[in-house]
Amino acid sequence: MGAVRRIDSTQPYVKKKNIITFTIATENTYIHLADGQSFPVIEGDIIATDQQGNQFVELEKNLEDYVPVVEEKKRSLYESMAKGYKEMGDINLEMSEAFHHAENEAETTTTSLVNGEYKEY
Asked: Which residue, 78, 25, 16, is CA-closest to 51?
């Protein structure tokens, strides 16, 4: 089959160019298309704008055809590294606390055995 990497099929995907933002016109105005055409927009109309800046008027009844998505910003290398170091620090702290607890238990048990105070239940 060749070199193929499987993508999570349970996760929906959308092309960035298909992401639409909506605004409501607060006054009568015009939207201008890339080909030079202009269309009037009446106050209260819903203006849809894609990532390339193309605009069109959308009917309110058609809004149910759109699914809201959260657009995650790309992390910089430094943000990713900072997150990784924090996660590593949390793991190291957890391991250190577990080791410290085990060391205290061993010392307490050894002291009890030496002093003859150790009682097994």
From this structure: 16
